[in-house]
Design brief:
single chain; elongated; 2 domains; 177 residues
Length: 177
Amino acid sequence: MALTPLHVRLHDAAGDRTFRALSAMTGANHETVRRYMQGASPSVEFIAAFCDGLGLNANWLLTGRGPMKTSEIRPDALSRANPTELLSATAGNMEKLDERVDRLEVFVSTMESRVRASVVREAEIAASQRAPQTGSGLSDPGPHEPFHAESKAARHASGRARRIVDALPDRPRPDDR
């Protein structure tokens, strides 16, 4: 069988690897690999596994066009790209990034508002638990009673939430720009 350009490229890519090494890499029987390498038409599965195993650009292997290695595809495309196309692609990416940043700012703003509202609620709860009960005839609970424990927990939570709010930077809201 005469070697076709595809088979020449197969040999170029395989280098000095044995049929058994190519067999192990592709999952094909070593006799099948031998037939493919000697001129038989290779299967699509073999071509795919061969390209994956060696990091080859399948377009190069099948047609001879483009760079040999997949790692060289992007640099090759960028070197041949039209500057206008590159600027257009960059502008499109910048617009998408700007939209994502805007959504992120809205999300962060919403979270900040929720944290601040939580702090206010917790402070109100803590204040109401510390306030004396007037007109109820009940005395202030002692240090070992459940009300005192809840009040202490509420103060702790309120203090923790206040520290979180204080740590948040005061940033302009997205609608303030």
